Every structure is written in structure tokens, then in C-alpha cells.
Amino acid sequence: MNTYAIIDTGGEQLRVEPGRFYDMRHFTLLNPSILDSNTKVLIYRVLMIHHESNIALGDSWLEDATIKGRVLHSHFKDKITIYKMRSKKKMRRKLGYRLNLARFVVDSICFDGKEFYK
Question: What is d(CA 82, CA 80) in angstroms, rounded to the nearest whole number?
Fold first, then answer.
């Protein structure tokens, strides 16, 4: 059984399957300390669901579709370094930052009152 969904979160679109884990940036605009381990999450911004040979597409989002999951932990990604230089002007600038990511696992995909597990 090949079930997956495409969700919109954190400014990007992800293809998610039940039983797999994913790293998401900008998971919530709330305080990151709220995202403790095993915090349950419901995602309503589901763009498409594929189950066996059926495909359900939404006009922007699907109405009766949710993704149930839980947050495993939050962590930082490797540091991204930005180096700007203008030749012959003696201008050099070095900046860097680390993205705050939340790793979560998809428990099930719900659509029209049915739940699809792994």
C-alpha cells in the first residue's frame, strides 16, 4: 500500500508518508520551548493525498484531510556561511546563521473519516 500526502508548511512543500520522520523549518511561530518531545501535531494544509490508485487534489487545500504526527525533538542545522566581497573595493563581509529545525514523525494520514497507517 503506497500512501503519501503533499503538505505545505514552513514555506515549502513536503511529500510525507506514515511512519517516516522529517525536518521542518519554521514549524511554529510560537516559542520553540513549546515543542517538547512527543508533542502531538495536526497539520491541516494538505495539498494532495495519494492512496493506492486514488488521487485527491484540493483547490488550495483539501477540506477533510489532516496529518497526525508528533514532534521528536528540535535541533539546529549546520551553520550557513555567507561571504560577500567586492573586488578592488576592500569590502568584505562574513555572516552566518543556523536554522532551527523540528524533527517530527508522521503517525497517520486522515481523509474523509478514514485513517491510513503504515
Answer: 7
Give residue for cell 515543542.
Answer: 35
| Tens-digit pLDDT profile for residues 27-73 | 655 565 666 788 888 899 999 999 988 899 988 899 999 999 998 88
Cell of 32: 520553540
How far is residue 57's CA from residue 1's CA, in Å, rounded to a whole number?
A: 19
Where do the domains of the chain lie? 3-116
C-alpha cell, 115: 485513517
First to last CA, the chain: 8
